[in-house]
Amino acid sequence: MRGGPFDGRAVLTGAGKSQVGRRLGRSGLDLTVEACLRAIADAGLTPDDIDGVASYPGPGAPDPGFSGADVMQLRNALGLRSRWYCGAMDTAGQIGPAIEACMAVSLGLADHVVVFRSVWESTAQANAGRGSVLFRPGTRVSGHLEWAGPYGGISAANWLAMPAMRYMHDFGLTREHLGTIAINARRNAGLNPDAIFREPMTMEDYLAGRMISEPLSLFDCDIPCDGATAVIVSRREAAAGLPRHPLTVESVGTGMYERATWDQRADITTMAAHDAAATMWERTDLRPSDVQHAELYDGFSFLTVMWLEAMGFCEHGQVGAFLDEPGRISREGELPLNTSGGQLSAGRLHGMGFLHEACVQLWGEGGERQAPAAPEVAVVGVGGGPVAGTMLLSTR
Questions:
Q1: d(CA 184, CA 94)
Q2: What is the pTM of this model?
Q3: CA 349 to CA 195: how far, in whole Å?
Q4: In this structure, are residues 179 and 329 in contact, taking their beta carbons and an 8 Å threshold?
């Protein structure tokens, strides 16, 4: 079998997560340091062993709390001597820096890279609320907001509602199908002690949720929170002797075939996820049928619909039929999905939380939420709308 883009040289050796919650009152850097130190210790390393750092989105994030810390702040806090570092906003989704770290270790630019994503949106937005970051009076909007803003379309919930309605119209997707994704997330979150919302949710509860932007209701939207996640990307040779069984990065998806847009693709019932997934499968001999575990972005439930299709788990337009099979995406099903509770119930760790959970599941350390059939191959899909990135991992 072909060795993939990194020929087995890039592996994951550790993962860590900070405290996660709402309005914790801790700084973004504090949470970042906690997650990174846990990931480093989890890999059996010390900060002196870390010679690479990568993160998304880097400095200059416009929204309060959207970035807990940048690469330079973490380097200074831990006193890291970096042979390679990277912090950027325009990447293949929020796991773009992890993909770039794989390239760095494969080329010998670094031995062990700490990759992190941190947010403290819940605390930062506590006074003015989430709406304060969507539209600022007195400022001039640009890009697609020039056209959507005057009609009140200032949230990603509005931008995604349009393709969701079109997909429903064309292919018969229903709100009950979206509810299946939200309820599965809540069921898994009930087994995750770090999840924010753990109370059981029924389909009746879901359908009664307050409408945000039709067809997306309150329970179709993720939960802003405070928290940080980190993983260690290592060069395989440098991982020899470390305590963990290294997870091989079999392939990654980095493609973007059309403009980075929420609403101007040639086919509005597809997204950047389709481009990223296509390039991932081009780079490996593994196939969708080999995947035993999936962590797919759920900033909104409809994004998970897009990822299920993009990853090739069903044909275009057939996600509804895929979800109609009872228990298919449950922990006990053929494709355990978002076992931590995802961002819909566990909290919006903005992408990297999915990579962390995939590592936990592949190492068999999920506790009560561990998938019963220990997976050997897992896929991670991160991002929504105009940007996306993927990573295919295995225990081989």
A1: 23
A2: 0.95
A3: 11
A4: no
- Please, are residues 228 and 353 in contact by the beta-carbon 8 Å criterion? no
d(CA 244, CA 37) in angstroms, rounded, equals: 16
User: 389: closest CA among 363, 357, 351?
Assistant: 351
What distance in Å separates the CA atoms of residue 115 and residue 228, rounded to the nearest whole number? 11
Please, are residues 149 and 191 in contact by the beta-carbon 8 Å criterion? Answer: no
Q: Is 298 exposed, middle or buried (0-12, 13-18, 19+ CB in 10 A)?
A: buried
Helix (H) or strand (E) holding 393: strand 389-394
Beta bridge partners of 221: 300
Cβ contact 267:65 at 8 Å: no
Residue (of 370, 373, 378, 371) closest to 394 by Cα position = 378
Question: 249 by DSSP, 3-state: which?
Answer: strand
**190 and 200 in contact (C-beta within 8 Å)?**
yes
**Are the beta carbons of 94 and 329 closer than 8 angstroms?**
no
Handedness of CA 59, 55, 283, 253 (dihedral sign): negative
Separation CA 316–CA 299 (nearest Å): 21
Cis peptide bond upstream of 47, omega within 30: no
Peptide bond into 375 cis (omega under 30): no
d(CA 77, CA 112): 18
Position of tokens 């936990």? 360
Helix pair 301-310, 156-171: axis angle to 10 deg: 50
Cβ–Cβ < 8 Å for 393, 247:
yes
Query: Which position has the token pair 């997306």?
Result: 216
> Using 50, 70 and 90 to split pLDDT, how confident is the model at 133?
low
Residue 201, pLDDT > 80, answer yes
Closest CA to 103 of 389, 396, 395, 362: 389
Q: Give the mean model confidence (pLDDT) for residues 31-51.
A: 98
d(CA 233, CA 230): 10
Residue 342 has a pLDDT of 98
Q: How many whole angstroms separate alpha carbon 357 and alpha carbon 70?
A: 22
Query: Is the CB of residue 110 less than 8 Å from the CB of residue 118?
Result: no
Backbone angles phi, psi at 55, to 5 degrees: -160, 160
Name residue 240's amino acid.
A
CA distance linking residue 114 with residue 41, whole number of Å: 11
SS3 171: helix
Which tokens go with 252? Answer: 């990654």
